[in-house]
Each structure stands twice: as structure tokens, then as C-alpha cells.
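Subject: Sanity check before I submit

Could someone independently write out the C-alpha cells for this chain? I want to compare against mine line by line before I put it in a report. The sequence has 442 residues.
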Amino acid sequence: MILIGNGRTVTRSGAEFFEDGAVAIDGRYIKEVGTTAQMKAKYPDAEWIDANGGVIMPGLINMHNHIYSAFARGLSIRGYNPRNFNDILEGMWWKIDRCLTKENDYWSAKAVYLDCIKNGVTTVFDHHASFFDIPGSLDEISEAAREFGVRTSLCYEVSDRDGEEKRMQSILENERFIRKASKDESDMQKGMMGLHAAFTLSERTLEDCLMHGGKEAGFHVHCAEGPGDVQDSLKKYGKRIINRFYDAGILGDKTLAIHCVHINAAEMELLKETNTAVVHNPESNMGNAVGCGPVIQMKAKGLLLGLGTDGYTNDMLESYKVGNIIHKHHLCDPTVAWDEIPDMLFSGNAAIAGRYFNAPLGVLKPGAYADVIVTDYDPLTPMDGSNANSHILFGMNGRSVVTTVCNGRVLMKDRELLVCDEKELMAKCRESARKLWAAVNA
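---
Independent answer below. Compare away.
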């Protein structure tokens, strides 16, 4: 039994808030939440973790990441001078993924999961690509997640862009891992069918993905990220991307439609009709200059929306801040995004993740998985359940996190990492990254 207490506790269970709260953890699950005095009296023999007056809240969820992109940090690619999103894909990301080895996969995964722990992210939905070395690549990421104790969903990015052999290897890698993850009794790992984007996916490929496990596990797919993707779909198939995926049977309540920057009202209705979740990635969309997704309109239509980072960062609170600002700027409306963005991060992500994992995530209540974080935030104004989001938005960032617990396992306590020697890990990551950089510029 673990007891985390002596902190303002944001449960995300309705408006429940404790000025001096505590969370009792029994194994993998939350046993009870209450005041520190109540919980200490009830569980006097529990291992005590002192929040020291900070804020206790549920572990954060990242609904879309690209772990393999980690080693791009600081990389200079010879001759790279992008003018649009397709140039970015072809000139950087596709060059990198054609050089990634299993060694790179493993060490970049360890680096990212460690950064997630430091930023209070306890669940990660990842989308992998390593076209140089496909079979077994998801196992490298899976092992890193297992070692560090982070809950994760993995898939491989299916695409036609590198030919028939790679296309089929990608589909089979997803199918293999979906089956493997389905046997994980700890409920810490899931497999999905990953898809790149419509302009690199033929009708035959979509059919094959449905046949090889995608229908049951769900799809993790990039949708209408850039305008070129939409133009390609209209030219080749005479229909917009969401319509095409709808006709192919790709949409549904187990599918993650990533980005959806360039969709119209009719496509939004199809997403709603099929109960497909949409994941917004504001920083990535800005960085790639593809536009600002119409998530305010989607939210008004009642779609289920989540928040991801697309590999741009592992700090979900940073994405919260950017999402709050970009929509005000884009719509010239200071009233928007105050509710929509935190709802994506705290409610939407929990609801979407709940479609895949067996117990509630993103909430501190009895029976939920014991994913709990503590920040060192000491509010300078009164804080309660009604204004907690404002305090988080303006007073915290990922590195405010001092303690991270996932599935009842303490991964970081008082900023001391308990899963590895960080300096040793970073040295090994740099060594692996140097090999990748040399291959990219060979």
C-alpha cells in the first residue's frame, strides 16, 4: 500500500477537489481518495509519499507521439531546405526512418519514456516508423516501455512509399504486435494498426490492413494534415480523405484520426457518426506550417477530441499552453479554447484511452489505474476545483512534476529517477544518435 498525500488534490472525478488530500494505492489500482488526515488514519502502515504542499493529480496521457523522431534533435541534414510539408516529410522524416536500426529504436524509446516520466506522462500512444529495419522493431519500443514502467500503445506506420516488400512487412509487424499485446495480462501495452497518410496508402493497402487485425484493434492514422493530402485524395479517388476512410471501413470507435486540419463540416459529421476520436497536435501543426485544425468547430459538433504532441515535445502541459493560444490567435477570438483545450487533455484523452485499456485512466478514484503525479506548484492565489485548470495553465509546466507513479510503481520520487541512471542513459543515446546521423548524411 502506498499513500500519497499532503497536497492539493485534483481528482478529475467531477469537480472533486481536496485542499489537503491523499491518494491510497493498493497494487495497480487506486483504493481511495480523501483528506490526508482521513487516509493516514485509515492506512497507517502504508508507504508514505509526501507531496509537501504541492498538487496531486492523475498521470497525463499523450494520445499521439512519434518516439522515433527523438534522435532528430540537433540533426543537420545535408541539402535540406524545405518549402512545404511534403518537403519536410521527404527531406527529413523519410530519410531518418530509412536509416533507423533496432538499436536506435530502443535507445530513442528509453530517452522518450524517461522524458515522459519527468513530465508526468504515464500513458503514451505512439506511432512508429523505421523502414530500414521493420520486423520486430515494435518489440524494441515495447521493451523500453516495460523496463521503465510506462503504459503505452504501439503501432507501425504502414505506407506504400517504400515498395511492396516494406508495405507488407509493415502490415505484418502491426498484426504480430497486436496479437502479442493482446496477451499482456498487465494491461500495460496495446497494439493498433498504424497508417501513415492517405496519399501514401492505396485501396489495396487499406483492405489488407483491415484483414490483418486493424478492424479489431483499431487504426492510428494521420488524416488531412496538409493541404496536399486532400488534393491527392480528390485527384486520385474523387473524394475527400475522411469520406475515403469511411468508405474503406477505417473509421470507428477504436480509430484515432490524427490532425484533421483540412476537413470540412460533412467530414466532421462522418467522424461523429462513426464515433471516431480526433487527436489535435497544435505545436506540430504550427511547426510544419500546415494550418490550425478546426477543433473548436469539432468540439461544438460533439466530437470526441484528444490532445497529442506528434513528437514535438513530451510535455503535455506545454501543448496545453500552445493550444490555448493558437486558437485565439487563429480565430481572432479571445473567448475560445479556455474550455476546449483542457477538456481534450484531461477529459478527452482519458475517455479515448479508456477505449483501449481495461480500467479508467486520467482520474483519481477507486478502481482506476494508479497513475498519479505530484507537482511542486504552490499557488499564489486561492485554488480549488473550479479554477484548477487556470492554475495548471499559467502556473505549471512538465518539469513542475516531482513524483510520477504509473500502475502503482513509483518511477520518480522527489525528482529522483528510480528507473535508471540518467547520465549513463543519455551517453548511450548520444552514441546511438551519432550512428544514425552518419547514416542519414552518408
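---
OP: Matches mine. For the report I'm noting this point. The CA atoms of residues 55 and 271 lie 36 Å apart.
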